[in-house]
Each structure stands twice: as C-alpha cells, then as structure tokens.
Design brief:
Length: 429
C-alpha cells in the first residue's frame, strides 16, 4: 500500500521551508515514525497503472534514474530540519527512530542497489532505525537476481514485495506485465537465501481472467511459501491505457460479482494454507509467535502504520506525508521535484490541516478495514448512542461480528469485507 494517490488533491499552499504547525506535534510521543521512499521509474508502463511513474524516455536532464538518489537525499535533509524544529520539540514532538521504511514505485529495483542503500543509509543516519525495524522494497520478478537480493539484505533491507500479479501468461499480457511467471520460484528462493521476508502482490478481476485462472494464481502463490500475500481487485482508472481499451469496448469492465467470487476464493485458499487476513486485502502467514487479538507477526507493519494513523514522511515526487493533524503531498513531476530541492525549497505542492471531525472520519474509514476492528468509542467498550441503530442494522445484514459489537467494536465478517465501503458509509453518514 503506497501513499501515492493518482491525482493530487486541492489544499492550502505550504511554506517553502516545509515547516509544520505546532499542532502536528500533539500526541506524537505515542505515534511511530515511518519513511516512504518513492522511486518513480519503470522500464515500461503497465496498462492498468495510474501511479506517478515514468520511463526514462519520458524524462530528461535533472530527473533521470541516475541522479535520483542524490535528489531524494536532499528531501531527507529537509525532513530532518523540519522534524528537529525546536518549536515542534517544545510542543511535544520527540526525536524518534524510524520504525518502518518502505521503498515503492514504480520499480525501485530499477535503481542500482548502491543507490537504494544510499537512500536507506540516509534514513538511518538521520533518525536511526528502531530495533527490529521493518525495511521493505518492492521489486518486479525480472528486476532482481540472487546477487542483487543478497546485496539488498546486506544493506539493511529485511523484506521484499514482489509484483507477481498473476501466474497466467495471458492475464499478465492483458496487464502489460513483462516478467516470466516461471521466474517466481527462483526469485523467492534467492530472497529466502538472502534472509529476506517475502510478500507477493496479486491482482484479481483482470478482463478475460477466469475463476480457474485466479485459482491457478492463488495456488502458485501458496506454493511459493511467502510470508505475506496482498490480493487487490483491479480498478480500471480513467487516463490509463486499460481505461481507454474499456472505453472503446476492446476489454470488458471488471464485474463486481466476479470480483466478490474471486475474493471469497482467495480468502478460502489462503486461509486453508495457513494465512490470516489482517486487512481486507492483506493476508499474513500465521506463526506460533502470533499474539491472539493482534495482527500476525508477518503482517506489513509499514502498511499497518497507514491504517493506524501513525506518522510518516513520504520522499519523492507525488509522495504523501502525514504528521499528526497535517497531511501534505509533493509536486508530481520528477523534474519539478528535483528543481525545487536544488533551490533548497520544499517540494510540497499542497497540504491540509485536519480538524477533529475529519480525523475521526479517517479513523473510521481506515480502522474498519482491519481484522482487529474499530473501537467505536475509544476507551469505553460501548457503542455510542448515535450509532446503536446503525450497528443493529449491520448485524442484521450479517456485515459485522456480534460478539465484537457487544464489546463496542466493529469487526467485519467475510460478507462485511466484500461490502466494507458500505459499512463505512453507514457509520459516517
């Protein structure tokens, strides 16, 4: 889960020095700090993708992959200045080690390992890494080999997330994915040999994908014995190649009933293989060290930090950041991003200072998706009076768990996971 929405929202103009209001420091001692590093380069652009990514041919001087690590280090230096502001410290923002680092894209492993190591090293030198910190990079199966994975582990990476998407060649072709699915067992083995935890990403609902195709992908993923599986429903976004193909009638629009069938199949196959869902689209391998009532040990702690409203700084063009009640986002184009940093200016394009009502809305929207559920009235164990009728309706519809509701929590049933957005609307309307 990357903090990279396809379009930048509206917002107020941030200061050129990136300074944060003192309100962002309130309660920070109880929040973890994470870092997201966006690498906006891909060898080719996949037809379904609307992330902020570019091929080298689309860029030019000052924004190439070769110079990118140096540019990213400039933003890390800026982040260090902003977060060490004495005014924020006086307001309650402590010096914190980084708990999680996630390098996403794009295809981060298009960069030399030495560049990824420089970026991680800058994070380590700036804030320090907390004991047991989770450090993940995304990778395409055709962008790594045994030597590069070993080098990533030596540099301090602990986890790799492979963009598998499908095990069926025709589905990969529709998605414009370039890797050979037969390579997956090799790259997973190389990652294991290097001591890295392994996650694989799957997409279901690709036009032309049958239920049998999807079952093949699930069975193949399980056979790889990863620590973690993400399974995302394909969303056809306007402005993408696939969006144009659907608009012209060349590809069918994904069907909601088909997506529900495939999600239920994923839940069954992965559960039978020893995985447990901890967020609607994410499953982690169970472990004897797992603590009942808490996410599995192999859950992505970085992604959990987003859903739990922790703090993170997003480095890179288009990256979003969040500290306390402030959210901001960077300019999207790598050339503009590089230019601003070269001028010692913040690359932020806009920001929002969130009021209490908005933060509560987001707490509900994000918390509902987690397996441990949402505490409706924190610290009380009660369903607030204003929501009692709503929760009763959700129970009657089989969308939430009865025992959890009696403890003042909303926990989704399998049917509720299929209709998670409807549950959120019911709780927030």
């Amino acid at each position: 889960m990357d903090p990279m929405p396809p379009a930048l929202p509206d917002g107020e103009t941030p200061p050129d020095d990136g300074a944060l209001p003192v309100s962002s420091a309130h309660g920070a001692a109880a929040r973890d700090l994470g870092v997201y590093l966006h690498v906006p380069f891909c060898r080719v652009r996949c037809g379904y993708c609307d992330f902020n990514t570019y091929t080298n041919a689309e860029l030019g001087g000052g924004a190439s992959a070769a110079s990118y690590a140096t540019t990213a280090l400039r933003e890390i230096e800026l982040a260090a200045r902003v977060l060490s502001d004495p005014t924020l410290a006086d307001a309650g923002l402590p010096a914190r080690e980084v708990s999680t680092v996630f390098v996403g894209g794009g295809t981060p492993t298009m960069l030399p390992v030495a560049d990824l190591a420089r970026m991680l090293g800058a994070v380590r030198d700036t804030w320090g890494l907390a004991p047991g910190a989770e450090v993940t990079t995304e990778a395409n199966p055709d962008s790594v080999d045994a030597a590069s994975l070993a080098a990533l582990a030596a540099a301090g990476f602990t986890r790799v997330s492979f963009g598998m998407q499908s095990a069926v060649r025709s589905v990969l072709e529709t998605l414009d994915r370039t890797h050979d699915p037969a390579r997956l067992p090799d790259v997973v083995r190389w990652a294991r040999d290097a001591g890295l935890e392994v996650s694989v990403d799957l997409i279901y609902g690709t036009p032309g994908e049958s239920v049998d195709n999807w079952r093949t992908s699930l069975d193949t993923a399980v056979a790889l014995e990863p620590d973690h599986v993400s399974a995302y429903a394909l969303v056809v976004e306007p402005g993408t190649k696939m969006g144009a193909q659907v608009r012209r009638g060349e590809l069918p629009l994904p069907d909601d009933d088909d997506a529900a069938t495939k999600y239920e199949l994923a839940d069954r196959v992965l559960s039978e293989a020893g995985f447990r869902w901890y967020e609607v689209s994410n499953f982690a391998r169970t472990d004897p060290a797992d603590v009942p009532g808490r996410p599995p040990r192999h859950a992505s702690r970085h992604n959990l930090s987003y859903w739990r409203d922790q703090d993170w700084w997003g480095v890179g063009p288009g990256a979003h950041s969040h500290v306390g009640n402030v959210r901001w986002w960077n300019v999207k184009h790598p050339r503009t991003y590089a230019f601003r940093l070269e001028q010692s200016l913040s690359p932020a394009a806009g920001r929002e200072v969130l009021d209490d009502a908005t933060r509560e809305l987001e707490r509900i929207m994000l918390g509902v998706r987690l397996a441990d559920g949402l505490e409706l009235e924190p610290g009380t164990g009660r369903v607030p009076e204003r929501l009692r009728g709503t929760v009763a309706d959700l129970l009657r519809e089989g969308l939430v768990d009865f025992a959890a509701a009696r403890r003042g929590r909303v926990q989704l049933t399998l049917r509720g996971r299929l209709l998670a957005d409807a549950v959120v609307r019911a709780l927030t309307d």
